[in-house]
Amino acid sequence: EAKRQGKHRYAQFVPIMDLKLRKRKQLEIALRQAINNNLLELHYQPIFSCAEQKLLGYEALCRWNDPTLGSVSPDIFIDIAEETGLIEPLGRWVMREAIREATAWPAELFVSVNVSPKQFYRKSFVDSISNALREHQLAAHRLEIEITENCLVLEPESASKALFELKEMGVSSALDDFGTGYSSLSYLRNFKFDKLKIDRSFIEFLHLSDDDQMLVRAIIEMSSSLGMTTTAEGIEAAEQLQILQQLGAHQVQGFLLGKPKNAMTTKQHCMSELLSAHSAADGD
Ligand code: C2E
Ligand code: MG
Ligand code: MG
Ligand code: MG
């Protein structure tokens, strides 16, 4: 009886798996084409100082709008790219494109680039960044890389070696999605990031939850005493921003302050932000 049931379940299980795999295979093929035909795009989301909302830089976020599949979320295609090795060409393209685009912005602005584990662990990773910076003549201090805790678990030693080499070059590093990974604190002991990005899930209910406020306060205090700045991600409401100001967060990012926009719009955005900042300063 048990065996028959087992067999029955197995029979149901196969077609579903099959469908998922076929769908993934289809996405993989389309993604490979998109990379080869230069169909990916970068959007840029502004990052501001928390105290006075001064524009500081942008995070580059990859976009894939496929002619037949429509727009695919990076949460899905980055995952596929990681599994299939496509992250290598994709990541290389993202890095070079973000660096190139940042040269069109005022020199006080930084660009922040997400890097996934497979990309980060490549031996050539640090060299390829230094080549791209040199080729496009972008000052190293204007580049920041964002990695998640997943980038640290597999080979903590080679991870911290790469991070030190980047630091030596003048490139900043941020720990992204902080608080959502498995083990957070030991990583902060082994390597000092320049910045810690507090995950959106801690911000979402900040104005409604005392516990979340306590947690965010503790994260900000801890990272400050370790010499890191904090960026709060995913601010959608004015109340959230106000609380973050009271808690002393350094930088803020979220739909309330600016959504990710394409390169052209970003160029216009940073020019007008800077002009209005200057005229505000003149007024004083
Ligand atoms: P992330 O690095 O944590 O990026 C922040 C995500 O939150 C982005 O989603 C952004 O659009 C979204 N976001 C920003 N502000 C708000 C807000 O106020 N409310 C809400 N609901 N969402 C907000 P996106 O662009 O869909 O990217 C998702 C993830 O995909 C990124 O999370 C990052 O892990 C990955 N990703 C995106 N582009 C790249 C890339 O070029 N390379 C790599 N390796 N990963 C990337
Ligand atoms: Mg990020
Ligand atoms: Mg994040
Ligand atoms: Mg994320």
Automatic annotation (TrEMBL):
Signal peptide: none
Coiled-coil spans in chain: 1-37
Domain of life according to the entry: Bacteria
Entry keywords, A to Z: Coiled coil, Membrane, Transmembrane, Transmembrane helix
Keyword Transferase part of the UniProt annotation: no
Domain EAL: 24-274
Protein's recorded name: Bifunctional diguanylate cyclase/phosphodiesterase
Residues of the whole record sequence present: 269 to 552 of 552
